[in-house]
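Our platform keeps sequence and structure together, in a single record for each protein. Because each token names a local backbone shape, the row as a whole describes the fold. One such record is reproduced below, unchanged from the form in which we store it:
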Amino acid sequence: MDAVKELQERMLKEAVVINQQVVLLDAVLNHQVDPALIQEMGREFAARFRDAGVNKVLTIESSGIPAAYATAYELGVPMVFARRKQTLATDPDVWQERVPSFTKGIVTDILISKRFLGKHDRVLVIDDIIANGDAVRGLLNIIERAGAELAGLGVVVEKCFQEGARSIRERGVRVESLVKIRSLENGIEFED
């Protein structure tokens, strides 16, 4: 199975374009998950970053978890996810960053236990969709404060008509996107 081609075909069949800025991928990526497709995505990200010295895969709950897990599994390294809520069981010693959510229209805190991210880590960030890039920038800030090293960013779906991935690349970060959407004006239009 070619993960990229399969993902594009599934998006064309099952995604719902809400408006020129928002595409709903619930049936494909972030509500209903196809384990075989997700595992193929993990293989693809692992192949792209296999020589990057990654010892940890990082994402934000919840939609990024399946692709990050599959990638970590394929690389044979742990996966860590940033929590969006502090609970009674949350480690009090955390890296924390406030980030706006494009799709939710709110600002939340993301939290990562300092036990799971530190100066000995070389981190690959995996995200499901990148629009404005605020969540990823929050993770990059935490990685920097933790003294960890960033190996790169893997994105399942990049919305090229928004600033996110471009602004991350301008920081000198290696960004690998499986699928790039050029436009949502007349349905989903992919970049070549």
